[in-house]
Amino acid sequence: MSLKEQDSCGCEGHAPPSVLEDDYIPSIVSQLAEGFTSKKWSSHIEPVPIPSKEEVVDLVLQAQRIMFPGYFSSTMLNPSSLEYHLGYNLTIFLRNLSRQLSSAIRHDCFRHNQPCSNCNARSHELAGRFIRGLPAIREALESDIQATLDGDPAARNADEVIFSYPGFFAVFVYRLAHALFTLGIPVLPRILSEYAYHRTAIDIHPGADIGESFFIDHGAGVVVGQTCVIGDRVRLYQGVTLGALSLPKGAGKKLRDIKRHPTIEDDVIIYANATILGGDTVVGARSIVGGNVWLTKSIGPDTKVLLKQPELVYIGKNE
Amino acid sequence: MSLKEQDSCGCEGHAPPSVLEDDYIPSIVSQLAEGFTSKKWSSHIEPVPIPSKEEVVDLVLQAQRIMFPGYFSSTMLNPSSLEYHLGYNLTIFLRNLSRQLSSAIRHDCFRHNQPCSNCNARSHELAGRFIRGLPAIREALESDIQATLDGDPAARNADEVIFSYPGFFAVFVYRLAHALFTLGIPVLPRILSEYAYHRTAIDIHPGADIGESFFIDHGAGVVVGQTCVIGDRVRLYQGVTLGALSLPKGAGKKLRDIKRHPTIEDDVIIYANATILGGDTVVGARSIVGGNVWLTKSIGPDTKVLLKQPELVYIGKNE
Amino acid sequence: MSLKEQDSCGCEGHAPPSVLEDDYIPSIVSQLAEGFTSKKWSSHIEPVPIPSKEEVVDLVLQAQRIMFPGYFSSTMLNPSSLEYHLGYNLTIFLRNLSRQLSSAIRHDCFRHNQPCSNCNARSHELAGRFIRGLPAIREALESDIQATLDGDPAARNADEVIFSYPGFFAVFVYRLAHALFTLGIPVLPRILSEYAYHRTAIDIHPGADIGESFFIDHGAGVVVGQTCVIGDRVRLYQGVTLGALSLPKGAGKKLRDIKRHPTIEDDVIIYANATILGGDTVVGARSIVGGNVWLTKSIGPDTKVLLKQPELVYIGKNE
Question: Domains in chain C: how many in total?
Answer without folding.
Answer: 2
